[in-house]
Design goal:
Layout (H helix, E strand, L loop, with lengths): L14 H15 L6 H8 L3 H7 L3 H12 L1 H13 L4 H17 L6 H8 L4 H29 L7 H19 L12 H16 L9
Helix pairs in contact: 1-2, 1-4, 4-8, 5-6, 5-8, 6-8, 8-9, 9-10
């Protein structure tokens, strides 16, 4: 007489598995179109299990940001605090770390999601702004002020310069998760970033007195 082995139940998903499933769906479908039952299904658990950890889609989104993006913001803040070289090298370090940890991952799809849905979900947008955008702007602004104070950078309006520095990077990500599908050939993000850095280097450097305009 054969004995049937007892069926093994899948271990309940950990919160990190749920946030990973949520990130994938948020990027693919958007915030509004993602349902909690879809997240649970992708993670391989019941909707009830998901509710043990997250009581709403907003809470789940915040957890995605807390686990994946805020740690990188903390890393960049530590990089800035420890940096002793020139200010432009600091900017390069911050961008390189951000790109490797965020820009080349599914988290890169979050800016496009925010641009598309911020008006409809102001609480989620405000959370993202306070914890990601505001902190990112502060890092860039501090590097600019450092460079201007040392004479490495020419004097510029800091807040406007932050916008000009960040905008091309945001456009790279938004394009990648939207109209890039219409291109006949995939763009080279590394080349894009290299050109952006080269233009910044030339645009920020302090000019010799006889060449200033």
């Amino acid at each position: 007489m054969s004995v049937t082995a007892p069926r093994k139940r899948r271990k309940e998903a950990r919160p990190a598995e749920l946030t990973a499933a949520a990130l994938g769906l948020f990027v693919e479908k958007g915030f509004a179109a993602t349902r909690l039952e879809d997240v649970a299904a992708r993670a391989g658990v019941s909707k009830g299990t998901l509710y043990l950890y997250f009581d709403s889609k907003e809470a789940l989104f915040k957890a995605v940001i807390q686990e994946g993006i805020i740690p990188v913001m903390l890393e960049n803040e530590e990089i800035a605090a420890r940096h002793t070289g020139c200010s432009f090298e600091l900017m390069e370090k911050l961008l390189a770390n951000w790109w490797s940890k965020i820009g080349q991952t599914d988290f890169a799809g979050i800016p496009k999601l925010m641009v598309a849905e911020a008006r409809n979900f102001p609480e989620v947008a405000q959370y993202y702004y306070e914890n990601v955008i505001r902190r990112g702007r502060a890092l860039v602004g501090a590097a600019l002020e450092r460079g201007m104070a040392s004479g490495e950078f020419r004097q510029l309006d800091v807040e406007t310069s932050i916008d000009v520095i960040i905008a091309p990077i945001l456009m790279l990500l938004i394009w990648r998760f939207s109209l890039a599908c219409c291109q006949s050939a995939e763009g080279d993000p590394q080349l894009y970033l290299q050109i952006h850095i080269d233009l910044l280097r030339q645009g920020l450097r302090r000019l010799a007195p006889e060449t200033q305009v």
